Structures are given as C-alpha cells and as structure tokens.
Amino acid sequence: MNYLILLFVSMFCLALAVTPFVSADNLADGLVTGRAFWTYLVVLLGSVCLLGYLTERKRLRITWLDGAWSLFIGWACLSCFSDGNTLSGKCAFLLSLLVLWFTLRLLFLFRPETRGFFTGLWLTVALLEAVSGMAQLYGFTYSHHTLFNLTGTFFNPGPYSGFLAILLPWTLHVALHSRKLTGHYAWLCVLVICVVLPAGRSRSAWIAALLGSAWVLISYYKAAIISYVRQYPKRITAMLLASVLLLAGGAYGMYHLKKDSADGRLLMWKVSAQIIREQQGLGVGVGHFPEAFAEAQASYLKHASSQEKWVAGCPEYAFNEYLQIAVELGIFPLLLFLGVGVSAFLQAVRTKQSGIAGALIAFAIFAFSSYPLQLPDFWILWVCLCTLAIPTGYTAGNNWLPVQRIGMIGMAVCSLFVCTSAADRYKAYEQWNRLKMLHNNKAYEAATEGYVALYDILKQNPRYLFEAAQCLNHSERQEEGSQYLRQAARYSSDPMIRYVLAKNEQEAGNYLEAERLLLHAIDILPERIYPYYLLANLYAEPDFYQPDKRQEMADSVWHKKPKVESQAIREMREKVKEWLNKQDK
Questions:
Q1: What start and end residues bound the annotated signal peptide (predicted)?
Q2: Which residues of the chain form CATH 1.25.40.10?
C-alpha cells in the first residue's frame, strides 16, 4: 500500500508540473482552456492520493496564511455567485486552487521528500520551456502566434518570458547550492534560460529575472559582500553610483524600446485606479474588468492628452494584477492576496530558501506590469511556490485529528464535484471548436443553431458571443444577434462589439441608438477610424440625413492617422473620396 500511494503521489507531482505543456487541439482556445480542464483532473488525483493517509497520526499545523488564502478564494467565489456564474470556469478553477493549496500542504507533511522531487521537476520544466523557445527561434518548430516566432508553450512571448523569469532564480539557487550531477544540471538550466530570455523582448520579464536572481546571489554571497563592504567602503560607493547610473540608462533605454507600449500601460493603470476610486474599493465583479475599463476610459479620455488618446487600447486585462484584483474584487481581497505573498516570502527567507524567495520576488515584479494570473500555469506555479515556502509543522495525534480527516475527504469530494461539473463545459468548448471551422469558412447559417445551443454554458465568454452574433446576423436574425452582442459587451472592451451592434440598430431603423453607440465607441477609442466611417454611413440614411455631420465624419476618416496602414483603411478612404467628389459636383 505504501508503494502504491508513493506511485500515485509521484504521478500527481509529475502531472502538476507538466501543466504548461498541455494543449487541447480539440477545444476552442485550447492552450488556456485545455490547461484549466487538466488542472481539475490533477487536483482530483492529488486529493484522492491523500485518502491513503487517513490513518496517519500527524495533523497539519494551520497558519494564518492558510486562512488568508482560503478567505481570498472564498471571496472570489462569492463574487462569481453574485453574478450568476455559479458553475462558470472561473469559479471551478478557484475552487481547484483552494484544494490544490491544502493538497500540497498535506502532501509535504506526509511526504517531505516530495519537496526535492518537486524542485527537480520544475527545473526540468524550465529547461524544456527554454529549449522549446530556442527550437522556435531557429525554425525547428512553430510558435503558437502568427506574429511572433517565440512563444514556447504559451500563446504570446510575454507570458513565456515571465514564466522563465520566475523559474530562473529557483534554478540559480539549486545551481549554487548543489554539487555534482544536480549542480551541473541546474547550471545547464540557468544557461539555456539566460540565452533565450532576451529574445522574448519582455521588459517586465527582464527586470523580474534580474532582481529575483540578484536576491539569490546576494543571499549566497552575503558574508563575502559584508566583508568586502567593510574593507573597501569607497569602492562600494563608486560601484553603487555606477550601478544607479547604469540602471537609469537601462530604464530609459527599455522605455524607448517600446515607448507607445509603455505609455499605453501607464494609461491602463490610471484608468484602473479611477475605477477603484469610483467603486470605493468594492470591486465590479470577476470577469467584468473589460466592461468597467471601457466605460472609465471613455470618461478619462475626454480630458486626456493627444498622446494618451493615441496609445489608448481595449485590453482584456489591466497589465497589473494588483490593480486588476482591486478592480474586480476590491481592496480587501487585494490585501489578502498581498498578505499571502509577503508572508510566503518572509517564510522562505526565514527558512533560508533563497530560490523560492527569489522566484516570489520575480513573480511579484512580473505581475506588476503583465497578466500572469489570467493563465492557469501561473496560478499553479504561484500555489507551488507559496506552499513550498511554508515550513511543514505538525502536531502528533490529538482531538482535532478527525477534523483534518474530514477535511481530506471533503477535498476529494470537492474535486470530484468540480470535475463532474466541468464535463458539460468541456463538451461545449469541444463543440465550439468544431463550429469555429464553419464560422471561419463563413458558413454562418449552418453554424447558427449550434452556437445558440451553447449559450447557457458559454454566455460569459465574449469571443463565443461575438461569433454567435455574427452567425445570427448573417441568418437574418439581427435582433437575437444584438442580444448576444449586449451580453458580450458585459465581458469585453472590444470596440468591434459596439460597432456591429450599432450596425444592427441602424438596419433596424433605430438611428439614434446607433448614433449613441458609435459616439460612445469613439469616446472609448478616439483614434480608431472605423467608427467615423460608420457614422458617415449612418448620417447618409434618407430618414436620418445630416450632411454637415456626414462631412465632419468623412473628414475624420480622410485626415486621421492610422496606427497601422491596412487595405481596409485604404478602401474606406476611397469611398469617402467618392462621397466628397459627388458632393463637390
């Protein structure tokens, strides 16, 4: 029985570590949804493994950190419930994270040797990720994005670079503290990561990797550094001054490397802070950040500079996880999340786990200017880092032992419930993936009924809703299509949703509503050319004819500078030119 349990525990650890390599080609958005569904199975396997330890006399010493994490997950789940998303993927994944947390805590209690096994697995993950990136760079394999040749097992080089940046301090710690084969293996991981990381061109990942690794190096050479500082204080002063100048120059260079991107990110943070103030720190609900952002940006840009209007976008995320948590959940859950991270870091420092501490630093820095917590891989890595940082204290048999055993059974039941409730969502994503083939081939009428049948399960997914609305529109069911588009606008800031909705209203004869939607879309993104073109068309309607406004919109289409020149913009300008020529005659 002991060997059987050990086998299942090893399978669980391995399955958890390989999550970043899971890809479900049979599912829509398989790189993300496939890993979420995989997580449900892994967590179920882990909680079932714990049932083999029901007869153990050890009891886990619960810390306030465990309570803070439970409260954070509970708060987020309540937010899902209040929005009617009881069985949504977000809620199910949050429950899986709660079960995973305590599964790992108990596993490290009953099997302390799994800590070393875990470390070896994550080092291997880092090496394989880096090697896959190098293979893409040299053209041996394809990336998962048409615009980038380096994505690793992710869909974008940003998350890929961030993932490597978080693992780098951990691998560096193992390399410094291990000898012989393990040390050589860890140094190989460090070398390959350092070679491929610059190619990702992610400034956030570079800074995270640099500071996380610096913590590991300072911790390792602490005694030598203190001795050198005392012996050569003037040299240290000069080196610090040179470092400050070098960092300032590097920061200036990184800012100008992608200046518009940096300005756009700063705008996102300003708008997100405005939402937090307007909501008085209470949150808008899980999944509603894009909608709240679009409304707040429309208000903010009325008094913004020309540069801010130029760099404005329609992001799905805040590109700052702390702001996103505060926007969606509120200030109190943000404090809980920060408390968990800071406490885990302090525990890692106290127990001299500088690799874990460095990885947590890198994670915190990367989360400041990116979106790691929107992907299942990073949540799993976060939970693993935090649980590894906590010392496994326990108390021998006492009166609370039955409570822990009930909890272990409860985790298994919860995992089983999450898996069974996810079965319908899995089939829905599978069906949606098949329907996307019809949609992409413009067989809209053939796909319409299939899309409509998935509404109850996928009604919180704006991409699905937009595709369904397109099918309904091409099937002469514009009124139903408009309902889908209004639902999609609750979960997305994409202006195209508002453009298509305005066109539906125009075809239905609701010209004032169409005008309101397009003017509001211009408030959200004033530098986009398409809504001006649509307004020019709207003002040409015989029952809504307004020549002065049409002329104004046509001038905007002709004179506004596009962010990217395209065939669509050239065609719009040609049509505008025809209008102006006819008007002159």
A1: 1-24
A2: 424-584
Which CATH number is 424-584's, of 4.10.410.60, 4.10.320.10, 1.25.40.10, 2.60.40.10?
1.25.40.10
For residue 427, what are the β-bridge partners?
A: none
Question: For the whole model, what pTM was predicted?
Answer: 0.91
**DSSP class of 562:** P
Give the C-alpha separation, 400 to 545, whole Å. Answer: 77
8 Å CB contact between 292 and 327: yes
Token output for 302: 């009325």
Question: CA-CA distance, 226 to 33, in Å (whole number)?
Answer: 49
- Round to whole Å and give the CA distance between 462 and 480: 15
Is the pLDDT score of 46 beyond 60?
yes
Handedness of CA 283, 422, 427, 379 (dihedral sign): positive
pLDDT in tens, 440-498: 898 989 999 999 999 989 988 999 999 999 999 998 888 999 999 999 998 988 889 99
Q: Which tokens go with 443?
A: 């067989």
> Under 8 Å CB-to-CB from 529, ≥6 apart: which residues?
556, 557, 560, 562, 569, 572
Q: Give the bridge partners for 395, in sequence order.
A: 59
End-to-end CA distance of the chain: 92
pLDDT > 90 fraction of the chain, expressed in percent and rounded: 48
3-state secondary structure of 560: coil
For residue 60, what are the β-bridge partners? 394
With contact defined as beta carbons under 8 Å apart, do 121 and 450 qualify? no
CB-CB contact of 88 with 424 (8 Å): no
CA angle at residue 229 from 224 to 234, to 5 degrees? Answer: 145
The two three-digit tokens of residue 265, written as one number: 């990110």
